[in-house]
Specification:
It is a single chain. This protein is an alpha+beta fold. α6 packs antiparallel against α7. It is globular. The chain starts with a helix and ends in a 5-residue tail after the last helix.
Length: about 325
């Protein structure tokens, strides 16, 4: 007991020297300072959220100083604080989906992960029709709101009219809704293409190589111009497959962004590697990513797992 009290008494004696390190989300910091004129390191990490029902029911009532960062269609994002006071800084980034769909619920629920192999034939006969159905379901309103100038216009970092003003090659760059817009080591941007006929990396062809290289260079230039403390070789560009939404987009993140499942092998395909693979394909300009076999990860709640790959695994596909 005495040892515990003596240990607890040390923390209030800590005198800050400087911030030594901070993780990408600001959830963990290491401070260099001193106690009784002797050097000391103090690491602080945010505690895990409680999971008991009573505490969770009271959680939203504890939120204060809620500041809207933006909203688009059913998506809203905020900064907020737990506690009140002039000196209280925002310590939570909130994302709200309202009204959410069953697909959202599946996406955010705990689920196992499976690695699947998608041949060109499986893509053509089963996956492509699924993607087409998702497009027709009208879940891209928030994307079109941005592209057509109705939402998030003040947040757009860069617009490119396309090489030589070619409308089909136009794109824009904007912050991802999951980024707090402040912590550079957790920087996350999205490059959204203007054209609507390219739904995923599967639609990319050899004829798009020059365009992809142009986008890569312009995205890098625009990002380091906007955020001068970042250099080009501190940025990572990739596409997801399967993506969250079926309209071609490029993720731009700081290399120090802590890896999550969305950056894992089998989910994130590096833009440079996609370009290289297209360059190495045999055939004419129409040869493309639809012609190759891809192996990637799928959550067990994903429709493609339950409706395509699980039946294939169990021999129930015919």
């Amino acid at each position: 007991m005495e040892d515990s009290k003596a240990s607890e008494a040390l923390v209030p004696l800590f005198k800050l020297g400087r911030l030594l390190n901070q993780d990408q989300g600001g959830r963990r910091i290491t401070l260099l300072g001193s106690i009784d004129d002797k050097p000391a390191l103090l690491t602080a990490e945010r505690a895990a959220f409680p999971s008991d029902t009573g505490t969770l029911e009271a959680f939203h009532r504890c939120l204060a100083d809620i500041k809207n960062l933006g909203n688009n269609d059913i998506y809203h994002w905020y900064l907020a604080s737990v506690g009140k006071g002039e000196d209280v800084s925002p310590d939570l980034k909130l994302n709200l989906i309202h009204p959410c769909t069953e697909k959202h619920i599946k996406k955010y629920s705990p689920q196992g992960l499976r690695m699947v192999t998608e041949t060109p034939e499986i893509y053509r006969d089963q996956v492509r029709p699924y993607i087409e159905g998702q497009r027709e379901a009208g879940r891209l309103d928030w994307v079109f709101n941005i592209l057509e100038g109705r939402k998030e216009q003040k947040d757009i970092i860069y617009r490119d009219p396309g090489q030589n003003g070619t409308k089909d090659e136009a794109f824009l760059l904007a912050p991802d809704l999951n980024w707090d817009r402040e912590t550079l080591t957790s920087l996350h941007l999205l490059g959204l293409v203007q054209r609507r006929d390219i739904w995923s990396l599967r639609d990319l062809k050899k004829s798009h190589i020059i365009w992809l290289k142009h986008m890569r260079e312009k995205i890098l230039e625009a990002t380091v111009k906007k955020y001068s403390d970042i250099e080009k070789d501190q940025l990572k560009l990739y596409m997801h497959y399967q993506p969250t939404f079926y309209h071609l987009h490029i993720h731009v993140v700081h290399v120090m962004l802590e890896p999550t499942g969305t950056q894992a092998t089998g989910k994130a395909f590096g833009l440079e590697n996609i370009i290289s693979q297209l360059e190495s394909l045999s055939g004419g300009s129409d040869a493309g990513m639809a012609d190759v076999t891809l192996t990637y990860g799928l959550g067990e709640n994903h429709d493609l797992w339950t409706e395509v790959f699980l039946p294939l695994k169990e021999g129930r596909n015919g």
